[in-house]
Amino acid sequence: MATFEQINLGDSASFTKTISESDVYLFAGITGDLNPAHVNAVAASEGMFKQRIAHGMLTGSFISTVLAMQLPGPGTIYVGQNLQFRGPVFIGDTVTARVEAAEKLDQRKWVKFKTTITNQDGKLVVDGEATVIPPTA
Predict the structure, then answer these.
(1) 104 belongs to a structural domain
(2) Does a structural domain hold residue 1?
(3) Which of 15, 42, 112, 135 sits between 20 and 30 A of 36, alpha carbons compared?
């Protein structure tokens, strides 16, 4: 865990996960997003990517994992996120979510983080920025 005062610009952390078929189906069930691009292999084979893709927000949620569990860590309050989805994530892909402290907002004691997710080939699949309130103690 790191407080506002303990975070330095450039500090970073990451989380890596291989996306399973179960991950995609569980996320679909939890959210109600049953888009055939995610859950129907036949329909997905006729689509843009020719196979099922993970939900963009499933992939993006790993940024929350890094912020909540590593940097700043437990007690962090997520107040904002922008995401740009740059490429597909397929079942079986291994993604790495990374956050890097980019700006400290002294007046509010908030921190902005550059957020990225890459696949096993190093290709950027998600890009963005998160704003958080770090834990106070």
Answers:
(1) yes
(2) no
(3) 15
